[in-house]
Design goal:
Number of domains of chain B: 2
Distance between the termini of chain B: 25 Å
Order of helices and strands of chain A: EEEHEEHEHHHEHEEE
Structural class of chain B: alpha+beta
Number of helices of chain A: 6
Number of domains of chain A: 1
Number of strands of chain B: 14
Oligomer: heterodimer
Distance between the termini of chain A: 23 Å
Strand content of chain A: 25-35%
CATH superfamily of chain A: P-loop containing nucleotide triphosphate hydrolases
Bound molecules: adenosine-5'-triphosphate, magnesium ion
CATH architecture of chain A: 3-Layer(aba) Sandwich
Largest interface: A-B, 35 and 27 residues
Shape of chain A: globular
């Protein structure tokens, strides 16, 4: 089975003149479709760097990255943007909603460059908000939402183009553990529907939901562990 | 939700920034529109005068002043007229090469004569030509001039204490006052106006003419040629084109207009720079937001058009507002510039609105490019 994510000898060195930081020092691993991969490691180990490379937000200084059949280093800027839109759903620790837009509008943001009838965009956003348990709160501004609710909006936004891969950088980092559990339930739900999930986390409790864990240390894979078997086929929705 | 709407929402969120961004454009366009509509109305007023003053060529005898130690005094026999004009000269003027361009030739005879015991200046012209030659006269008493009648200038009427229906004696003759002119601010205020034949009889100079007013059909007409041809036809006459006088006034208006353009250009330039600076500042402030948009798959072009639309909205609104304000200011201020009947001139407003919009958009290009070029990771680093 062709892996959906393929990393080969990926290195990332930041800076040029003076200070050079090696964030990633030759990382290689494959991820199969339907895996739920948890990435752990100490602060500064290179977790976020790896996630941004996987998300096509930056290109590694060395090595090859193939995701969903695209060689990221070969893609032009627009190609990378399209890749991010179609293949990747990003969820951040700090939600990063646009504060002046309602929940519905925030979910519609990734669709705004597209020539789709506004009604369709709205319906899509409403459906997604309902699926993350926010029906009835579509018209609220982020300031009128709790942290957990904001993260749900961010998840709905990440899912708007139905990407096969979800990348989450400490999505529960700002939430209390009960709320965090609800967010993790959502990820588990989407994983159950066939999405490949890569989640950076400090929380050991998250390991119980994952199928695999990778621990980074000083920019290298220190440990790569299979936690449980997973279904390679999308389960029935 | 589309880019346009996203831009709009962003503006509403930062209203004071948006206002500041648009301020320069607003002021520039308002100045431009106000000044150009005032100058174009002034130009219209000058043109109006030109048209109203039906005649644009005056034919008078060549005269030389005697040096009798009176300096520049021109009244009372200090002029020696070498050649006199007569009614017959009208035919000569009417037969020049460009005769088809001549609308009317009106002879005038001006002379000092007795009027009810006072020595006043009489101005004679064919009674039937009064309306055509002096269309701006407002005559109280309202009747047209006929032979045997006079019109009194406002001061002359006051001096003689006569009104419409009264009579004025001159020598042994009796003239009925057909009407009194409302003050014009010109010399005729002190004059008695009568049919030229009556004035010729009064002056005992039959057929005499002091000057002719010639009205050429004149939009882009060859005034110089007509002047030259009349000069040839009447070698003893001095032929002058009044138009040139008016033209110099137009030139003054033109200078004012240029000054206005200069001022608006500077204000607009500053406005454009203000757009550039504020939008550029906005880009820095919004690095993270732009990073998020890039992360969710916005192409560079979409970021560019987002900023472009934001500035577009601001420029559009401030240009329209500036154009409207300019029109209003021009309207309110027009009496100060001697415009009697202010009107709304739309062309500078339209031009101004378009110019403001384009300027705003041009000012938005550098920051929009910068935003589009922003590396998503640089932005995401704060994530
Ligand atoms: N844009 C950058 N320029 C320079 N150095 C960077 C940049 N981004 C990250 N680094 C450095 O690279 C290393 C890895 O950073 P990274 O953010 O990937 O760590 P992390 O594992 O996500 O840490 P944390 O758990 O604190 O989020 C760190 O030493 C960091 O200082
Ligand atoms: Mg990190």
């Amino acid at each position: 089975m062709e892996p959906i994510i393929h990393l080969k000898d990926v290195s990332m060195v930041y800076g040029g003149n003076g200070t050079r930081t090696t964030a990633l020092a030759g990382i290689s691993f494959d991820v199969l479709q339907g895996e739920y991969l948890v990435i752990t490691g100490e602060s500064g180990a290179g977790k976020s760097t790896m996630l941004t490379i996987l998300g096509g937000l930056q290109v590694p200084t060395e090595g090859a990255v193939r995701i969903g059949g695209s060689d990221l280093s070969a893609l032009p800027a627009d190609g990378l943007a399209d890749f991010r839109r179609k293949t990747i759903g990003f969820v951040f620790q700090a939600y990063h909603l646009l504060p002046y837009l309602t929940a519905r509008e925030n979910v519609m943001v990734p669709m705004s460059p597209e020539r789709v009838p506004p009604r369709e965009k709205e319906e899509r956003a409403n459906d997604l908000l309902a699926s993350v348990g926010l029906a009835g709160k579509e018209d609220r501004l982020p300031s009128q939402l709790s942290g957990g609710e904001s993260q749900r909006v961010a998840i709905a936004r990440a899912l708007v183009h139905d990407p096969p891969v979800l990348l989450a950088d400490e999505p529960t980092g700002n939430l209390d553990s009960a709320t965090g559990e609800q967010i993790l339930d959502l990820f588990s739900g989407w994983h159950g529907r066939g999405k490949t999930v890569l989640m950076v986390t400090h929380n050991k409790a998250n390991l119980s939901r994952a199928t695999r864990s990778i621990r980074l240390r000083d920019g290298q894979v220190e440990e790569d562990r299979l936690l449980q078997s997973f279904s390679a086929e999308p389960a029935a929705v | 939700m589309n880019i346009r709407k996203l831009a709009w929402k962003n503006l509403l969120r930062r209203k004071s920034r948006a206002v500041f961004t648009g301020l320069g454009i607003f002021l520039g366009i308002a100045t431009f529109v106000a000044i150009s509509s005032i100058t174009s109305q002034m130009e219209g007023a000058v043109q109006d005068q030109l048209d109203r003053f039906g005649a644009n060529i005056v034919v008078s005898p060549r005269a030389e002043q005697l040096s009798l130690g009176f300096g520049n005094m021109t009244l009372g026999g200090t002029e020696v007229t070498y050649s006199r004009l007569t009614m017959a000269d009208k035919e000569r003027i009417a037969s020049i090469h460009h005769k088809d361009r001549i609308r009317s030739i009106v002879p005038f005879l001006v002379t000092a004569a007795d009027a009810s015991g006072k020595n006043l200046v009489w101005m004679g012209l064919p009674a039937a030509d009064v309306a055509g030659a002096r269309p701006w006269w407002k005559i109280q008493g309202g009747m047209g001039l006929k032979r045997g009648e006079v019109l009194l200038g406002a001061e002359a009427a006051a001096l003689l204490d006569k009104g419409a229906g009264g009579t004025v004696t001159a020598g042994k003759r009796l003239f009925r006052v057909a009407g009194v002119l409302q003050p014009t601010g010109e010399k005729e205020d002190g004059m008695v106006i009568a049919d030229i034949a009556d004035v010729q009889a009064l002056a005992k100079r039959p057929g005499a003419v002091t000057y002719f007013e010639v009205a050429a059909l004149c939009k882009n007409c060859p005034v110089e040629q007509i002047v030259a041809q009349i000069g040839q036809a009447l070698p003893g006459a001095r032929v002058s084109a009044i138009r040139q006088v008016v033209e110099s006034r137009k030139a003054a208006v033109e200078q004012l207009r240029r000054l206005g353009f200069g001022v608006s250009a500077i204000v607009l330039l500053i406005g454009g720079l203000m757009v550039l600076v504020t939008v550029m500042g906005g880009v820095q402030e919004r690095t993270r937001e732009i990073g998020v948009l890039r992360a969710v798959g916005f192409r560079k072009r979409s970021i560019f058009s987002l900023l472009f639309w934001e500035t577009g909205w601001v420029s559009l609104l401030s240009s329209l507002l500036g154009a409207g304000t300019g029109i209003a200011v021009a309207y309110i201020a027009s009496p100060v510039f001697g415009i009697e009947h202010p009107s709304v001139v739309f062309s500078p407003a339209i031009f101004g609105a378009v110019a403001g919009l384009s300027l705003g958009l041009i000012g938005a290009i550098p920051p929009a490019r910068r935003a589009a070029a922003l590396s998503p990771t640089e932005a995401i680093r704060s994530l």
